[in-house]
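Hi support team,

I'm opening this ticket because the web form for multi-chain structure prediction keeps timing out on my end. I have pasted the exact lines I submitted so you can reproduce it. The total is 558 residues across three entries, so I didn't expect it to be a heavy job. Is there a limit I'm missing, or should I split the entries? Thanks in advance, R.K.
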Amino acid sequence: MQYENPEIPEGINTSNEHPLKELVWLLGGVVLVSVIVGLFLVFATNLSIALVPFSYEQEIAAPFVAELEHEEGEISAYLQALAEDMSTWLDLPSDMSLQMHYIDEETVNAFATLGGHIFIYRGLVQAMPSENALAMVVAHEIAHIKQRDPIASLGRGVVFMIAWSLVTGASGSDIGGQALGQGGLLTLLSFSRDQERAADQEAIKAVEQRYGHIAGASALFEQLEKAQQGSADAVPQFFSSHPLNEDRSVDIEQLADAHAWQTAGELTPLPGFVSRRVAE
Amino acid sequence: MLVTNIETVPGRQVIKHLGLVQGSTVRAKHIGRDILASLKNVFGGELKAYTELLQESRDEALDRLQQQARAIGANAVLNVRFSTSSVAQGAAELFAYGTAVVLDEE
Amino acid sequence: MIEFVTFLVLMALGYGFGQYAERKHYRSILEREKRFRSEVLVFQTGVPPEQGQGQDQDVRLVMGSVVISVDYFKRFLAGLRALFGGRVKSYESLLDRARREAVLRMQQEASKLGAGMVINLRMETASISKGEEKTVGSVEVLAYGTAIITRDARSRFEPTRFGRATELFERA
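Hello R.K., no limit was hit. The queue was backed up. Here is the completed structure from your submission:
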C-alpha cells in the first residue's frame, strides 16, 4: 500500500470571478428590482387613494394647518370668495370643502395640501397683474385638491417609508407619523409633472368658463418667472416639480387653439384693498 | 467515483492512499424564500425552501469533493463526513471531507 | 450623506486590505503546503498503516485552529447575495483559507513531534459572530487528528502548547 498527498489543483472550492464584477451585477439587480417594485407601488397607491374619504384627509391635516402661521383677514376672505367662485366652475365634488390661507411672506409661492387647504403667499399675490392670473393660480391649486394629489403624495410617502423600513429593518412603528412629521405639509408639495399638467388644463378651462376668455391667465407663467428672477432670495418652490414654464404656456396655447377660446379680453383688476395691502 | 462513509470497501483493496479531499460551498436562498420561511416559523412544519437549499448545497459540496479526488487520480473517496455551519444569516455552509484512495479493480 | 461617505470609505478599505490580505494568505498557504506535503501526510481515514500499531510507533493528538474574519466589502457582497440567492462566493474563499490554515497548523504541530503522518483527521467549523447586525462575520476552524510518531523520532519530541493533553493521552 502506498501513502502520498498529491497536490490538489486550486479553484475547486473557490471561484476566480472578480469580486467587483459580482458587485456590479448585484447592485444592478437591486436597482432594477427597486425600480420595478417602486413603479408597482406608485400604481397601487394611486388606485387605492380614491378609497380614502375626504373627511379623513381633513382630520390628518388639521394639526399641521394650525401650526403654520397664516393671517385671517380681508385678504383671506377675498381669496376664500375667489376660491368658492372658481370651485363651482371646476365642478368640485360637494363633499370637498376649501379653506384659503394667506401668508404674509415675500415668497412667490402657493400650494395646496391635505384636507382642501390652500396657502397663498404675499409674494405671489404681489406678482399678479390681474384677478384673471390670480384666479388661474387658485384654480390650479383647487384642481390638485379635486384630483386628490396631496393624499396620493402622502400615500406614496407612507408606502415608501414602509418599503424602506422593511429593507433596512428600521422600527415599523408610527411610519405614517414619520412621513407626515418630516417637513410637515411641505413634503406634500411634490406632485408629478403629469399631475401638474392635468391641474393646468382643468384650471385654464375653469378660467375660460368664468371670464369668457383666457387673457391674463395664459401669460401667468412668464410673469411668475419674471417675479422669481426679481426676488433672488425666494426659493423657486412653485416651479420646482412643475413642467418648464415655456412648455406649460405652449400646452395652454394648444388647448386654447383646440377649443377656439378667446385669448384676448378685458382683464379684471385685483380689488384696490388687496393691491394696497400686498404692496405695503 | 465511489463515495462511502466507511473506511473500507468490502471485497476491494486500497492500493494507494491519496490523503484529504474537501468540498465546501456557501449558498443562500433569495429573500422571498427567507420571508416565507419566517412566516412558516409561526405555523411550524417543514421549511421546504431550506430543505432544498441544504440538499443543493450538500450535492454541490459532494461534487466538489469528487472533483478534487478525480484531479489527483483517485477512484474512490472513503470515510466521507459532512458538517454544516451557519456563517451568515440565511446562508448555509456545507462541508464534506474524506480520504481519496485508489481501489483495485474488481 | 455622511453615512454614505463612511460606507464608501469602508467599502474601499475593505476591498483594498481584504484583497491584499487574501492574496498574501494564499501565497503563504501554498508555500507551506508545498513544504508539509511530503513531510507530514494527512489522511482522514482512521486505519493506520500496516506497521501502525507496531512496537516502534507512538500516537499523539494534534490540532490546529484559526479564526478568520471577512472584510467589510465581502460582507456587503454577501448581504446583497442573500437578497437574490445563489452561491455566496465571498464566504467560500474565507472558509477555504480557514480550513487549509487549520490543517497546516495541525501539520506543523505534528511535524514538531516528529510525526510523518496524521490519521483520522476531523474538522469543526464554528461561526463566532453569526451575521449579526454591525458585526463582521468570522469563522473558527479546528482541525484535529492523530499523529503517528516513529520511536526513533521521539528524541526530537518537544513539549507543545498541548503538553497536558498529550500527557493525558500518553497515560491512557
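A quick check on our side: Chain A has one domain: 52-279. Let us know if the file doesn't open in your viewer.
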